[in-house]
């Protein structure tokens, strides 16, 4: 059996507590979503430009979409913080998938910046999910919406999902802001 005196035990205890504190701080730093509380004007302008260009494209098409995926009877603020994180991750997954679809060269160029921004936000959010609440079970409201999303992914056309997602990107950005703000979301 190893016998250590009091000073070496104190040093070991100090090292262990510092390592634990460093590990917690590293997790908190890797999970910082504060940069999404207030989005940069150029990011918002890029999303607005893409949305406007897409609306112009839609005027020329004869798409009839019935998806009401982004219409909810509840607000994001009503969800718990872990539910908000799960909601926004699902929204960002959908958005990055839809913005990554093949399209005309001019529209592909317009959506490069929003796609890069949303992809980075999704990766940042995933880092938080891994460190905060990996075993969280969604509430009934969120579970119902996630099922609605899965159904839409199976039954709606890709064009309708793309249209719904692009037309509601500012809602996704607002939901991201709510996650970044934690408790203070409206």
From TrEMBL:
GO terms for cellular component: extracellular space. GO terms for molecular function: cytokine activity. The keyword Secreted applies. Pfam families: IL28A (PF15177). InterPro entries: IFN-lambda_sf, INF_lambda. Keywords: Antiviral defense, Cytokine, Secreted, Signal. Residues 1-21 form the signal peptide. One of its GO terms (biological process) is positive regulation of immune response. It is found in: Secreted. Belongs to the lambda interferon family. PANTHER family: INTERFERON LAMBDA-2-RELATED, INTERLEUKIN-28 AND 29. This is IFNL3 protein. It comes from Hemiprocne comata.
């Amino acid at each position: 059996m190893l016998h250590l005196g009091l000073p070496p035990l104190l040093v070991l205890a100090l090292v262990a507590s510092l390592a634990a504190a460093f590990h917690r701080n590293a997790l908190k730093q890797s999970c910082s979503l504060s940069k999404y509380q207030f989005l940069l004007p150029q990011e918002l302008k890029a999303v607005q430009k893409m949305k406007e260009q897409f609306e112009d494209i839609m005027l020329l098409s004869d798409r009839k979409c019935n998806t009401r995926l982004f219409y909810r009877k509840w607000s994001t603020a009503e969800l718990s913080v872990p539910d908000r994180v799960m909601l926004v991750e699902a929204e960002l997954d959908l958005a990055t998938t839809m913005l990554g679809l093949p399209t005309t060269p001019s529209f592909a160029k317009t959506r490069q910046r929003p796609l890069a921004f949303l992809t980075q936000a999704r990766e940042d959010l995933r880092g938080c999910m891994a460190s905060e609440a990996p075993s969280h079970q969604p509430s009934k409201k969120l579970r119902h919406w996630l099922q609605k999303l899965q159904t839409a992914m199976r039954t709606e056309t890709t064009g309708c999902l793309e249209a719904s997602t692009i037309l509601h990107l500012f809602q996704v950005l607002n939901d991201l802001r709510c996650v970044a703000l934690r408790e203070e979301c409206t």
